[in-house]
Specification:
The protein is mostly helical. The chain is built from 25 helices and no strands. Helix content is 72%, strand content 0%. It is globular, with a radius of gyration of 22 Å.
Length: 446
């Protein structure tokens, strides 16, 4: 793909950054992804697509918002002024990427998708646009648009594109989230035949096994491919999270807690990224729901502290609903009820954050009431939005924690109707998994 920069150095760093971004790894010879992007901008400060890429990565990381981060707001303002200043020298592809950045910055993710779809139509070799399309649909919980867009893009993309393997991996995820597991596994294996260390493809194959409750196969898959996925440090924590899920559903409770402590929490503390913080918060929350720490005689204290430090400054960001839900877990885990209430009360300050008003706010309130042992209130808030929670984003596997929350709250509620709901949800899980997996057994006895 031709880049609109006179600097060969900037183009080289753009390509290197895009490979790292799609491959979920840091090229240490270049100082990692952030340093690569920094060098790209230094090589050509007027490189519009490069500047947009830099901000897109920062926004997608989920721990900054121009509402609360002055540096990010200044960079975005500088980019917009640069576009105005260069006037007719900015091409359409660059202008569209700048539109994507601005929509993301205002929490207008649906509008971002519309622009990204146009990019996919006009520039089928723009792998950055495809990656951002996948990521944005992920945060909207919209699998079908993601699936269809990637299907069309793959068909039009040249076989000579060195990053096409990564697009097969992205397509695998879209298919898995569309419950098309055999097709997803085919695409994941195709991706790995082209790029053996495509950690996202490995991850997406594991998703298929997780959703089908194939725990033995899942554990073997993660172990057999560990030499490929472990060097990809941006996703390694999440891969250990999936491995821990397989262990829980294989009655290996001690192994699951050990992975949480030795890998997930350690990496979350060291990396300070939103994805790693989500993984740690979600795993602790799941384990506390069913008292897994008590069942394994492993104390639960101090696990929340490190993750809380990562999430503490973001109670007013309201950029991505999925992030806010995990921030709430950490605030409640540390008994910071004041910050938890602030997270809820400031949602209305961002009118464009529509999922916040309709879905996220009742979800956060339900979590708050569960923390206070007000199980009836929790169920009354959570049950009506049960099938809308998909719109806060995340994968089916990640959002299952909220299904588990509703199930446990329903069984603990004083209302007979709620208890029957909890019992029905147990039958649902058994039917969907084809058997009563250990996780369901834990939930039933919580």
């Amino acid at each position: 793909m031709k880049l609109n920069t006179p600097s060969d150095e900037a183009a080289k760093y753009y390509d290197a950054a895009l490979s790292q971004f799609c491959g979920w790894y840091h090229d240490q010879s270049l100082g990692g992804l952030d340093k690569t992007l920094e060098r790209m901008v230094e090589a050509d400060p007027e490189f519009i697509l490069g500047r947009a890429f830099d901000i897109e990565v920062e926004l997608g990381g989920g721990l900054v918002s121009p509402r609360t981060d002055k540096n990010l707001a200044a960079n975005l303002d500088e980019l917009n002024k640069m576009v105005e200043r260069k006037n007719g020298l900015v091409n359409e592809q660059e202008l569209l990427h700048v539109q994507v950045v601005n929509h993301w910055a205002r929490s207008e993710l649906k509008q971002s998708i519309q622009v990204l779809e146009r990019l996919a139509t006009l520039y089928p070799e723009d792998v950055l646009a495809l990656k951002l399309n996948q990521d944005t649909n992920f945060f909207l919980g919209t699998a079908l648009p993601m699936r269809n867009s990637l299907a069309a893009s793959l068909a039009r993309m040249s076989e000579k594109n060195p990053l096409k393997g990564y697009v097969h991996g992205m397509f695998a995820f879209a298919l898995e989230e569309s419950n098309m597991y055999p097709a997803a596994q085919v695409q994941a294996l195709k991706a790995l035949s082209l790029i053996p260390r495509d950690t996202w493809a490995i991850h997406n194959y594991a998703h298929c096994l997780e959703m089908q409750a194939k725990t033995d196969e899942g554990l073997k898959w993660m172990q057999d491919r560990k030499c490929d996925w472990s060097p990809c440090d941006m996703l390694a924590c999440h891969q250990y999270w999936h491995t821990a899920l397989f262990h829980i559903n294989n009655n290996n409770f001690d192994e699951a807690v050990d992975l949480l402590d030795k890998e997930v929490l350690t990496r979350a503390h060291e990396n300070c990224t939103s994805l790693d913080a989500h993984d740690a918060a979600s795993m602790i929350y799941r384990m506390e729901l069913v008292d897994l720490f008590g069942k394994t005689n492993k104390k639960a204290d101090k696990r929340w502290a490190g993750i809380y430090k990562v999430c503490k400054p973001h109670s007013r960001d309201h950029l991505i609903g999925f992030n806010d839900a995990h921030y709430m877990m950490t605030y409640l885990g540390m008994n910071d009820l004041e910050r938890a209430r602030e997270l809820i009360d400031t949602i209305d300050e961002v009118p464009s954050f529509r999922v916040g008003q309709t879905v996220l706010k009742p979800l956060l309130k339900a979590m708050y009431h569960f923390k206070s042992a007000e199980y009836t209130k929790c169920v009354d808030l959570l049950e009506p939005i049960r099938f809308d929670i998909i719109h806060i984003g995340g994968s089916h596997a990640q959002r299952d924690v909220f299904e588990q929350l509703l199930l446990v709250a329903a069984l603990k509620s004083d209302k007979t109707e709620h208890k029957r709901l909890g019992e029905r949800m147990i039958f649902e899980r058994e039917a969907l998994h084809g058997r009563r997996v250990p996780q369901t057994e834990l939930l039933a006895s919580a």
